[in-house]
Amino acid sequence: MRMDKLKIGLFGFGVVGQGIFQVLGKSKNANAEIVGICVRNPDKPRAVAADRSLFTASPDAILGNPEVDLVVEVIDDARASYDIVRRALLKGIPVVSGNKAMLARHLPELIEIQRQHDVALLYDASSCGSIPVIRNLEEYYDNDLLLEVKGILNGSSNYILSRVFDHRDSYAEALAQAQALGFAESDPSFDIEGYDSLFKLVIITVHALGAYVAPERIFTYGISTIHDADIRYAREKGVKIKLVAQVVKVSDEHFTMFVMPEFVTPSKYIYSVDDEYNGVVIRGECYDRQFMFGKGAGSLPTASSILSDIMARRHDYRYEYKKSKFMQKPDYTTDITLRIYARYTMTDIPSVLRFTKIREQYAGEESNYVIGDVQLSELLEKRPQLSGADVFLANIPQFFLDRDN
Question: Nearest CA to 297 among 177, 107, 174, 159?
């Protein structure tokens, strides 16, 4: 463990960057200081006061500063984030990052750079805010007994669905409130279309199973088209609709993964994960289910996760990517059958999708729905036809039903 003060070069001073500045100020044992802050506009007024001499608009002012022995990157531009992280690692400077979109697209390359240059990249804050999912998967679950990681990975969409089901707000009212409170952006598509959850799932899977799957190969479906008819149906069945991401081993040789709304029964842990919270269920061969719960977003929760990675670097901690070195890693497959609920009006879903079995069908004046079994590969292939405003899909979970009785 190093005893001298850790000198940090910080990229980004928005909500999370300011949170890091505050959290470092509160920590009595961090023994770290920020020696430079790179932002687009150094003269912009900010809610958190910091010495103006720290600010710069030049990445080189930090990356070329021999004093800096850790880069912390929390900017929202994935392309700029990639450039900063890659340059720092190539210079041998360890990095802490929270940019899930960048990591999900470039993680294989960044893992190789870490190996070649003997340098560390930590990113627990990229997945589930304050919940230490990645560190636990890397250390505690570093074996081949893990079967599934499943959960609510996005606080914004969960807040909206909580308002709908627990407070009976309309979807539009819930979305507006989420935006007013800062849980959702003015353009909320990144959260409600499932992409935020998707990128987190890609990163989690690298540590859960040692396998990387590019985001475009994964079926992702959000909640933006949810309708009163879907909410009524769920209430009639005594379930809630949650936006759920999951990676599942379907055999010793294969795993699958997807992001979809899901009908969640009261017996499931994630049924009670409400508001802006996240919840992750980890299932294994010998330990059944274990549950992690906490705030998944926000300035201070995310900053606390960044602080954890900063402290880990004081002890020279790095990810070992143990499972990626397994001789027999499972292969990704979409050749599995899901049971789905599909509500539609104009789009003729039974004609669009090749159901292997239809289990229930309803036609009404307001809308129609069909419940049936369909291949995940079929959903992935037909994703463009399923994107209409008149269509909503939800997963009816079938994995591990025999284990949950």
Answer: 159
Note the pLDDT tens digit of each residue in 44-58: 888 888 899 999 999
Question: Nearest to residue 206, comparing CAs of 117, 105, 115, 275?
Answer: 105
DSSP structure class, residue 126: G
Find residue 356's DSSP bridge partners. Answer: none
**Measured distance CA(256)–CA(213) in Å, rounded:** 10
Residue 99 to residues 58, 107, 184, 250, Cα–Cα distance (Å):
20, 11, 17, 30
Phi, psi of 300 (to 5 degrees): -75, -40
Q: Quick one: which of 133, 254, 144 has its CA closest to 200?
A: 133
Query: Mean pLDDT over all residues of the chain?
Result: 93
The answer to whether 295 and 96 are in contact (CB under 8 A) is no
Give the pLDDT of residue 97: 96
The vertex-35 CA angle with 29 and 37, nearest 5°, equals 115
The Cα–Cα gap between 63 and 360 comes to 60
Which of 3.10.120.10, 3.20.20.70, 3.40.50.720, 2.40.50.100 would CATH assign to domain 6-122? 3.40.50.720
Contacts of 269 (CB under 8 A, 6+ apart): 279, 281, 289, 291
- Whether 102 and 82 have beta carbons less than 8 Å apart is answered as yes
Instruction: Name, in order, each residue with C-beta under 8 angstroms of 363's C-beta and a sequence gap of 6 or more.
Output: none
- C-alpha 178/C-alpha 157 separation (Å) is 9
Please report how many Cα atoms fall inside a 13 Å half-sphere around the Cα of residue 383, on the Cβ side: 15
pLDDT of residue 3: 63
